[in-house]
Every structure is written in C-alpha cells, then in structure tokens.
Amino acid sequence: MSNLYYKNAKDIKLNYITKVHGEQDGAMYGGYLFRFDGSGLVSVTDLSDYTLINRHFADGIEKYKPHGNSVFFGTEFYDEKDKFPLLYSNVYNSYSNQNEGVCLVYRITEDLKTKFVQVIKIGFVDKDDVWRSKNIQDVRPYGNFALDAKTNLMYAFTMRDQEKTARFFEFKLPKLIDGEIVTINYEDITKQFDTPYIDFMQGAICYDGYIYSLEGFNAVNAQKPKLKVIDVKSKEMVLDIDLTKHELIFEMELVEVYNETLYLSDCWGNTYKGEFI
Question: What's this model's pTM, rounded to 2 decimal places?
Fold first, then answer.
C-alpha cells in the first residue's frame, strides 16, 4: 500500500499505461473497467489487454439517465451467484432541470451489462443552508457520491459557491431490501463537515478513510485539473495537487483504487497509475 496516500505525502508520481475510451468516471472490478459517459453510455474494458468488450446504454435510461460524474462498486451483491457487486453512478447534470443528490444503482449481468435496481436520493437538498449555499446560487449543486467499502459508509458531497467550500455528508450505505427508491433524510446523516472548495467536481472514490476527488477542466481555464485528498476521519483536506504540473492538461475524469493501486484518466482516455511521494 506504499503507493496510496500516506500522511507525509507532498506530491504524486504518474506513469502512463494506456488509452481507453475517454468519458466520465468509472469503476474497476474483477478484471474489468466500467466507464460511463455523460449521457448514460457505458463502456466495458478488459483490464488484461485494455480491449473494449461492449458499449451499452445503462438500463432504465428512459427513467433515470446517469451522467457518471462519480462511479464506484459497492459491497452488496444482488444475488450470491453474481460475479460483481452492485455498481453506483450519480445522475449529476444529465438533465436541464435540477436533479440534486441522486445516485443510481445497477446489477452487472452475466453479459457484462447493467440492470437498474435502485435509486438513492438525498432528501434534504431543499433544506435551508444545508445542501446548497444560503443564497441558493450554486453553479453545480448536483453532488458526488463515494463509498468506503471497508466501513460501508457512503459520502455525498457538493460544491457550495457562496462560502467557497465543499460540504460532505456521511451515512450508512442503503441495502437493496430498503426498496427501489431510498431517501436519505437529514436525520440519517452520521457526520457532516466542510473542506476547502472543490472547483467543478469530477470523478471521486473513497478508499480506506480517504476520498480522492478530481476537479477542474483544462490548463487554459482558471479551473485547472487537480487531485484533492480528504481524510474523512479528521474531516480535513490533506492534499491538493495541481495536475498540470505533471503535464495533465486536459479534464481529468476518472479516479479509482484497484488492487491497491491508484488510477487516473482524462477525458480522452489517457490513463495513468499514480504513486504518492
């Protein structure tokens, strides 16, 4: 685990490995990468040789369309015979109307496609000065999600533009038995805290008590691509890395921890292994 975050890390070393389909965030499990684009299209890549296995629209897209801004595998299996646990993707800004705090849940079928099984909704997005900023003028109040598989604690977090902070909410991972639509009420929150701003959130993952969150667009914009690390135990942002200094000048979309290795990938699919130094 020396390649993952440790407390005296100051920077990151990146090694280019391959190019896959460049889309939004994605998740790795069982030798495969499931990566979403912004309109619900899912690309499945074999990690042994990085060949594309299939591309399909996420099941149930006529009802819920995932943007795939944050994607991750959970810990629960739909059936004990399944090879993959449930897969999660947020809606984010897939629609012109507001869809704040919505996360979709899928079963992976034998042919490596998605089957919609559940939706998780944050039920307090309209609560005064809690999810949104007090002036309700946030640019993207849709929210990202991440899961710490070791604790089964889920995190929803959002950009709060008025205060220039990111706000994090912790709650227990809902189970399938809880129903097709699960609403997380404010009373269900086990921890809430703010960190310095995350400017235009991109992909995110939680691993062993740390949330790895990408942000920004490209090097010519004010919103440079960055990687930020949040310690959920101390409620602090412990690392803030400007990725343009590592020649990552395009929109960074995917961050994943797989087999105790950190992966990053940009909007074009250029994919790297990362090691904190």
Answer: 0.95
